[in-house]
Amino acid sequence: MTGKNASEIWDLVEAKREVFFALSDRIWEMPELNFEESHSCAEHLDVLEQQGFRITRNVAGIPTAVMGEAGEDGPVIAILGEYDALPGLSQVAGLAEQKPVVDGGNGHGCGHNLLGSGSLMAATAVKDYLEAHGLKGRVRYYGCPAEEGGSAKGFMVRAGVFDDVDIAISWHPAPFAGVNNPISLACNEINFHFSGRASHAAASPHLGRSALDAVELMNVGVNYMREHMPSTARIHYAITDTGGSAPNVVQANATVRYLIRARDLPEMQGLLRRVKKIAEGAALMTETTVRSEIVSGDANLVGNTPLEQLMHQNLERLGPPVFDEQDRAFAAEIQKTLTNEDIKSSFVRFGLKPRMGVPLCDTIFPPESGDGTLVGSTDVGTVSWVVPTVQMRGATYAVGTPGHSWQLVAQGKAPAAHKGMEHAAKVMASTAIDLFRNPALIEEAKADFRERLAGTPFVNPIPDDVDPPVTVKDNQVLA
């Protein structure tokens, strides 16, 4: 992108900053969990309508998923947003000590209030640029719910809502700014329901068959399996139903939920088969029965070198976010609540040499930074198997801040968060405009996409018979 074009699209982002800063703050104030984001979705819908987008509601049959489109003909570029929160992370904004707004309440501990607003900010600037220059092409904003374990984008992929998209762009709040190293873990979240036989635990224990015993034996078996799986794989569990609280009753029913992660889809599916065998073994040992039920699933990210190089060029052209002394002072207060290990780990994860006394991002990390050993899962991964996809990390919080923490929630409305969000919006918008102005770049990205996936058929980790856990009653979303 020439300097003039870059400056123009960045000016278009800046022109509406107050609209999107306010949107982000409103979403922060109404933290809603997976598939329950009715108010957050409505806020995004209002802004989409105000900015002149064509609206599609109930995308993929999900009441809290929305799509806004602008432009005519030409290539289709999607910019992906999210707005779901996390449970138990309520926290007063702007306070460097733990203090919930509501005890046990929800909070935006992954910065998705910024993520959705920043993506819509970028999409709006692209819309305005296309209109001003009469360029052919369509920009779409996808408001995607339930990233935190709900895998909504996987359901959206399965419904075909990305089938006519040429390129997908997204971002995520982080301590540093740069092109995301496209490594994530494929995963499935799955319930194992054990059924046995209740009985009096003292008077007739021989007649009982404990479903809770089966859960405990399964957990022991999976723990032994950990020694014999790839070091990059992860398996977590939570007992969601213990079968009751009375110890003198043999538990007839119990449920354990597993989250199985691996470096790619085939590896994850192999681990899932092994975990299912362990569950069957636990049922056999306890003379119970077991039924498994997949809840959600994400594919691993598929990278795209041409898109990553293009996004990095725009990052280099723009430079790191500009923070002031007040921003750094608040970030330093947050760092006082962290350990040196927290801060060092933050640098290492992004492939940077640890530097103490650096409260906020002051550099752009290079592409493919970090060794990818400490990564999670994202439903953007599933999108990347069907559309050439690129993501960036936007610097919105203090270096060292753990994800899914009260410290991250506390920074969600700070001026530094707004500045980092705007910075990410500028990079995404200028990347999209480069693609619209030079369709050959789109073809390069598609060629890279085809080459990476040649001979590897895509299998959505969400089976066809699994539906998103939503119903609608009297215009209210019920998860």
Please characterize this protein's 3D structure.
This protein is α/β, with parallel strands linked by helices and 479 residues long. Helices cover 39% and strands 19% of the residues. It has 14 helices and 14 strands. It has helices at 3-15, 17-29, 38-50, 112-133, 152-158, 211-225, 265-286, 305-318, 325-335, 340-349, 380-384, 406-410, 415-437, 439-453, and strands spanning 54-56, 66-72, 76-82, 137-144, 167-174, 177-179, 186-195, 234-241, 253-262, 289-298, 364-365, 389-395, 471-473, 476-478. Strand 13 and strand 14 form a beta hairpin.
Order of SSEs, N→C? HHHEEEHEHEEEHEEHEHHHEHEHHHEE
State the helix count.
14
Approximate strand percentage: 15-25%
Q: Radius of gyration, rounded?
A: 23 Å
User: Which ranges are low-confidence, i.e. pLDDT below 50, for 5 or more consecutive residues?
Assistant: none
Main beta-sheet annotation: 8 strands, mixed
* Average of pLDDT: 95
Which range best describes the helical content: under 10%, 10-25%, 25-40%, 40-55%, 55-70% or over 70%? 25-40%
β-strand number: 14
Distance between the termini: 44 Å
Structural class: alpha/beta
Output the strand order for the largest sheet. Answer: 1-2-4-3-5-12-6-11
So what's the overall shape?
A: globular
List keywords for this structure.
479 residues; eight-stranded mixed sheet; 19% strand
Strand and helix layout:
Blueprint: H1 3-15, H2 17-29, H3 38-50, E1 54-56, E2 66-72, E3 76-82, H4 112-133, E4 137-144, H5 152-158, E5 167-174, E6 177-179, E7 186-195, H6 211-225, E8 234-241, E9 253-262, H7 265-286, E10 289-298, H8 305-318, H9 325-335, H10 340-349, E11 364-365, H11 380-384, E12 389-395, H12 406-410, H13 415-437, H14 439-453, E13 471-473, E14 476-478
Parallel strand pairs: 3-4, 3-5, 5-12, 6-11
Antiparallel strand pairs: 1-2, 2-4, 6-12, 7-9, 7-10, 8-9, 13-14
